[in-house]
Design a protein that fits this description.
Length: 371
């Protein structure tokens, strides 16, 4: 039958018990201890020690319990601390574990702020291996553990375990502002490239533990892209979806403890297709023309070839890019009047316009003729 463990939070005995702990570390054997001092320790530990214990002995033979590693950062004021129980039980009747939590004071000295005692009154085999600390402050906290083992009327105390530490951080980072720009030209309004610069400014009090920035478009949380960052102020390159439309880029900071800040929306940026046509469809029989809009990285001539859906070339021409706004490339327009190379109005239907510059394809445009 599994024994029931008791976890006792000692509140009224803090100074006395801690003084006893550190004092007992100097007691090598019961015989070497001053009897009056031992009686003082025993009197201060009344209510914690099992009934009938009359001696406290610092034992080098009692194995030192081992704390499990703690996370480097923890985003809750509640922390469960685990340890490896002592398995060598020969000659002992029962075991008690004392876990303490320290922080540093202004002088850099460790000060105990909380502790817990886990008691097994029937033996070692069913010892609990954890205890929970509540209402922990935001700070770097240090945890240590020692064991008590009873034999008859004596209580043997082990050496203290190695100290484990963690940083308690429950405050989410704050993203103050977020802005998008085109890669070329730093344009905040529109871009022809799917990749845009996202600049962010934020802060993470009190530790500046910013670890990631999440970026999404139009508040679609299922399409979040997470970027590792080392600072709350910086820049990442984010890929927009391919469709030509207004894009509302959103972002939020995530710190190393896992705290997620609120989402912030940046100004709208319009993603233009590399090449497009308007009006579409158009009616060349009534004098309408297709305005071909394209963006080129160079200022050399652009070849324009229009094919029908069976792959026949119906028109070819050339356009020199207009020097103007250089936001991701030189923006130019070319008017196709809907006539073939014989100056005949083409038939109703769909056409593919291919734009080439310096043997590189700039883009393809689907054009519909409707008379």
């Amino acid at each position: 039958m599994r024994c029931k463990l008791r976890k006792v939070k000692i509140v009224f005995l803090v100074p006395a018990f801690l003084a006893a702990w550190f004092a007992v570390s100097n007691i090598m054997t019961a015989d070497a201890a001053d009897s009056s001092f031992e009686e003082t320790i025993l009197s201060r530990l009344q209510g914690i020690l099992p009934e009938g214990v009359t001696k406290i002995i610092h034992s080098k033979d009692l194995p030192v319990p081992e704390l499990h590693p703690l996370p480097l950062y923890h985003n809750s004021d509640t922390l469960q601390v685990y340890w490896k129980p002592i398995l060598d039980t020969a000659g002992y009747d029962s075991c008690y574990y004392f876990v303490k939590c320290d922080r540093t004071d202004e002088a850099g000295e460790l000060v105990t702020i909380d502790w817990s005692v886990v008691v097994d009154s029937t033996g070692f085999e069913n010892l609990d291996t954890s205890t929970v600390f509540y209402n922990l402050p935001e700070d770097t906290l240090y945890f240590a553990l020692l064991a008590w083992a009873r034999r008859d009327t004596s209580l043997y105390i082990s050496d203290t375990s190695e100290i484990c530490s963690t940083i308690i951080d429950v405050t989410p980072p704050l993203l103050d502002s977020l802005h998008t720009y085109s890669l070329e030209g730093e344009n905040p309004d529109w871009t022809i490239s799917r990749d845009v610069k996202v600049r962010y400014w934020g802060r993470d009090d009190p530790y500046e533990l910013c670890g990631y920035i999440d970026i999404s478009v139009n508040m679609i949380l299922s399409r979040i892209v997470r970027y590792p960052v080392s600072d709350c102020v910086g820049e990442v390159v984010f890929g927009l979806s391919r469709h030509s439309e207004d894009k509302i880029v959103c972002g939020r900071l995530v710190d190393l403890a896992g705290n997620i800040g609120d989402s912030v929306r940046c100004d709208t940026i319009f993603l233009l297709e590399q090449a497009h046509s308007y009006p579409n469809p158009f009616n060349p029989a009534e004098g309408e023309a297709a305005n071909l809009v394209f963006y080129s990285p160079a200022e050399s001539a652009v070849k324009i070839k229009v094919y029908d859906l069976t792959g026949n070339l119906v028109y070819h021409g050339a356009a020199v890019p207009q020097v103007g706004r250089n936001d991701g490339g030189t923006r130019s327009e070319f008017r196709w009047n809907g006539r073939n190379d014989k100056n005949e109005i083409v038939a109703n239907g769909g056409y593919i316009c291919i734009l080439e510059q310096n043997d590189n394809e700039l883009g393809r445009i689907k054009i519909a003729v409707l008379k």
